[in-house]
Amino acid sequence: MTKGNSNYGYGSGGYTYTGSGTNSQGNHYCSRSGSDGSSGYHYSNTNGSYYYSNPNGSTYYNNGGGYSQYTSPSGGVYKSSK
């Protein structure tokens, strides 16, 4: 399994990819497990968009066309667009 270094709530040891696949719509997903037992996932979609859900409660969405949105663990929402 591939190991990652970004934190986002995965513990000081980073994370390991624990699974991946493609759903019925053709969208790719990966699940991740943190060094502290936490878990998260991301989707990469056929339309160019992608979404991350992290164990610290943060999420990130990018529509593949210039718009993105990050939601922090405390609920703050940060948006950007073209």
Question: Any chance you could write out the topology, listing elements then pairs?
Answer:
Elements lengths: L2 E2 L10 E8 L5 E7 L4 E6 L5 E4 L5 E4 L5 E4 L5 E4 L2
Antiparallel strand pairs: 1-2, 2-3, 3-4, 4-5, 5-6, 6-7, 7-8
What does this protein structure show overall?
The protein is 0% helix and 48% strand. The protein has no helices and eight strands. The chain has an eight-stranded antiparallel β-sheet with strand order 1-2-3-4-5-6-7-8, with no helix packed on it. A hairpin with a 5-residue loop joins strand 2 (15-22) and strand 3. The model is unreliable at 1-5 (pLDDT under 50).
Straight-line N-to-C gap: 36 Å
What structural category do the secondary elements indicate? mainly beta
Largest sheet: 8 strands, antiparallel
Mean pLDDT: 85
Helix content: under 10%
The dominant shape is flat
**How is the largest sheet built, in terms of strand order?**
1-2-3-4-5-6-7-8
State which percent range the strand residues make up.
over 45%
Count every helix, treating DSSP H or I runs of 4 or more residues as helices. 0
Radius of gyration: 13 Å
Number of strands: 8
Low-confidence stretches: 1-5
**Topology order in helix (H) and strand (E) letters:** EEEEEEEE
